[in-house]
Amino acid sequence: MDEILLYRRPMGTWGTRNHVLVLPLVASASGVARAIARGTGAAWVEHDYEPAPDELPENRERVARTLTGFATNPNVAAVLLVADTPDHGVLMDPIRAAGQRVDLVVVAEAGGVRRAIAQGRERLEALCAFASRCVREKAPVGELILGTECGGSDALSGITANPALGVASDLLVDAGGTVILAETTELIGAEHLLARRAATPEVARDIYRIIHRYEAVVLAHGEDIRGANPAPGNIEGGLTTIEEKSLGAAKKGGTRPIRQVVEYAVRPTARGLVIMDTPGNDIEQMVGMAAGGAQVAVFTTGRGTPTGSPILPVIKVATNSATAQRMQDNIDLDAGRILEGEETLESMGQKIYETILAVAQGALTKAELLGHREFAVSRYPFAVLDRASAR
Amino acid sequence: MSDLPRLEAVARRRPQGSLGIRHRLLVVPSVVCAAQAAHGIAEGAPDAQAIEHQHGCSQLGGDARLTEHVLTGLGTHPNVAGTLVVGLGCETVQGMVLYRAIAARGQRAEFVGIQQAGGTQAAVRAGRDALERLRQASAADPEVPVSWADLTVGIEGGWLSLPPAQSRVFAEVLEALLGAGAVVIQAVPRPSAPGLGAGPGEVPSASVDLPAGDAERLVARSFPARSWEVAPYAGPLPPARGFVLMPSPEARVAQKTGLAAAGAHLILSPLTGGLPAGSPVAPVVHVGIAPYARAFADDVEVVLGEDPPPGAAGAILRALASACREETVAEVLGMTEMAIHRIAPTM
Q1: Which one of B337, B338, B343 makes the best mutation probe of the A interface by having the most chain A beta carbons within 10 Å?
Q2: I need a labelling partner for A45 at 20 to 30 A (CA). Which of B38, B151, B214, B347 fits?
Q3: Which residues contact A387 (CB under 8 A, 6 or more apart)?
Q4: B341: chain A residues, CB-CB within 8 Å
Q5: Residues B199 and B65 reside in one and the same domain
Q6: How many CB atoms lie within 10 A of CB A363?
Q7: Burial B116-131 (b: 16+ CB within 10 A, else e)
């Protein structure tokens, strides 16, 4: 199948979903955003980002990039921004400039919370009416950007689900699509293997750079990455070291050349396999990939992580059948069948690929059915290094 | 000095002896991955409130401990009749550890693990059963009359930088509360928030000296006759009752969270910028500061003009008193934001 049915966006991109999003631009607007979206069917998020007077410009830029990228994700047909004061509504401009359908409610200008909710309801209705006129059209499979993620990993992650997802990643890359491999902290220890597959020496350098940078950040905070990673559940699941976790995690991206390394929440310009520099935190990673334009994600899990996304369909693949059965409300595919001899890596990979195409065209994932909509704003992590190098 | 209005309110006495001016069941996800299940558990139960936060995993040691510290404080708040901790199973801030910490402080508590229960829906079912047990167990908490001397009032730091005509009103409120025997926690915003008395890897400690910043000088000038003690962000409070300063981040939502986690029954929030915001456990009384807050007259309890009349402090005290008896505007509007202060980025 070379063509699938997707939503064409004025931004020149293609969406797998047709969400209308209510997005607070500061934490204190989260309650108003929630009240506007309540009962309307619109997607909405809450977060805890408040601009501070002493905020680093790098952090401000990272958050702005994340919120702008999320609002212009092709799965979003239209977006309603909610700000407290006019100066916090400035993201309206880049989002509109990107070609996205957008409106804004500024609570202080509306005349308070109650009036802002009423005004937001009206504006949201107009955006929903616009979205309801969007229809699916034929699009090349190569328009897909797949986000890959693993969370609650166990000793089988690197043996079943991750390499099977790697097979699916290769299939999508060969069809002209894009695959994002991310969670830099969980690539620590695998950098030499990834660098060997870099398409150019620059990409190889970038791979070493982002991985060493995260290692340095953790050390500079006077902490050991092993204190946070592997997490308690990983260890209980049989993972012993971050290197072991990483070697398994890197398999999600498949075997094709690595075309590009992009910063957090930046849309790749290359097709094929790319690496995005994200934290290992499951939610911040998913938000970063969504802000980078991913329209669908596959999330492998050993222990059973239920999280989804407010705007991306997230396909859950269990590494073992026990988790797949225990958490059948949450798990879409069981890669544990490879261990039972009922599937091979190749047949499971093919299944994952077919599921990606079906979900892209509208089939709902378990996380969507359960209403999972986790969101978090990732903060600029490298200030500690900037300070050290400035000294 | 303003005369304090009579409180004429009743509180519920908790088994550990504290008094609650609200009777809420709190659902606390130990990690962001459990937030959806926590939300599902509280949905449709008017007496239950789920906390929403984005933390609890892949945080460096100091932040993970601060998250646990704040969640423990909220989970043991006297306004909370019972706390249900929802964990995932593989997270850094382990739900079971958080549950034990909350139960160890004498709070009625229950625990549900999503991976243990077998998924989101199973966890929601188990969680609703657990809430029902908490509801029944707490129904017997006796109603007792409450006086100002029983209360701990948290005050955000926004008023410290107001012009004297307006800041004088807050100083008067504070003196009246202290004079009546209430505990007052004053949040003192510190621009260098990463300090907070905690380097990465340590829980903020009470032994920290405040820097001689403007805010501290103002506190000293406003209360020449007062001595105070310093508490760490989110508590615990010093054993002696009275005036407590709490170094806090500048973000107002994070100040509220710290005051609530330290056990403030009520929070007084001067609205000098941004939006009114509530707290999941403590009623928040907003004082809209003119000229900024004129647009928010419908969303605040009191508007404080540029040149407040002599009775302005009394109006604020009456609003605090009435918040002990009935819902605040923020509660009516369902505003229950919270933010946990972070020291380092997430890994």
Answers
A1: B337
A2: B347
A3: none
A4: none
A5: no
A6: 15
A7: bbbbbbbbbbbbbebb
pLDDT recorded at residue B217: 67
Structure tokens at B105: 């402080």
The model's pTM: 0.91
Helix (H, G, I), strand (E, B) or coil at B263: coil
Report the DSSP beta bridge partners of residue B143.
B12
Most confident of A38-47, A229-238, B186-195: A38-47
Nearest CA in chain B to A213: B347
Smallest Cα–Cα separation from A213: which of A382, A391, A388, A389?
A382
Number of compact structural domains in chain B: 2
Q: What is the mean pLDDT of residues A44-50?
A: 89
> Nearest-CA distance from B227 to chain A in Å?
30
* Top-tier CATH class for A19-133: alpha beta
Contact A218 B60 (CB under 8 A): yes
Residue B346 lies in a domain: no
pLDDT recorded at residue B221: 72
Cα nearest neighbour of A231 on chain B:
B92
Distances (CA, A) of B48 to A93, A159, A360: 40, 43, 37
CB contact under 8 A, B345 and A217: yes
CATH number for the domain harbouring residue B323: 3.40.50
Nearest CB among B64, B333, B344 relative to A221 is that of B344
Of B53, B54, B296, the CB nearest to A112: B296
Domain that holds residue B64: 24-138
According to the model, what pLDDT value does residue B154 have?
Answer: 98
Instruction: Using an 8 Å CB-CB cutoff, list chain B residues near A306.
Output: 33, 36-37, 88, 114, 119-120
How many CB pairs below 8 A link A and B?
218
Helical spans, DSSP H, in chain A: 30-37, 57-71, 92-97, 107-110, 113-132, 161-174, 191-196, 201-220, 225-228, 232-236, 242-249, 282-291, 321-326, 345-360, 366-369, 383-390
Bridge partners, B145 (sequence order): B10
